[in-house]
Fold this protein.
Amino acid sequence: MNVDIHDSWKTYLNDEFEKSYFKDLVSFVKNEYVNNQCFPPGKQIFNAFNACHFDAVKVVIIGQDPYHGVGQANGLCFSVNDGVSHPPSLINIFKEIEQDLGISYPKSGNLMRWAEQGVLLLNATLTVRANQAGSHQNKGWETFTDHVIKLISDKKEGVIFLLWGGYAKQKVKYINQNKHKILTSGHPSPLSANRGYWFGNKHFSKTNSLLEQACQNPVQW
């Protein structure tokens, strides 16, 4: 089965693509894209993997679902295309970076610049039907992305996992905490952030400090 994903990932994931659940998932997604408006565009479904190759992964951020508004989702969690107004969670991410690192608020919400530095921006579910949040959940994507998290944990060392909010924190069971670093906080959504669970987590300076301790280049957030 042909999945548009970078060769560095194919080495580890080809067996997964042949499993019955994944074949069922592909059939479901193809049918959805034919019969409904879905996001991200088909060629960007595996954008997180194509922008951040397996060997380059040093930070993992886990989201839940792609944005379901027209023109927003680009296959990277929390990211939107250039020129698209920033959703509330992304605004709060940029505000925290501003406070944490003194970096001025960016014009573009496209996080491709992070992915190209080794930040895997992984949604648990990689597709969604327009204007229907969660519409592609429990169809097989979570099985696949849980496998990816475990794969990174098993095959790599010293990766920093940023788990924001209750959903992402559930993924801790797939991560070997003896080999990797995990930073947790509330979700950047207004509901969580306004209750004091997001702002001040300093995850961006902490991540860079951990990378520098491991003699790796810090991320230009």
In short: The mean pLDDT is 96. The longest strand covers residues 59-63.
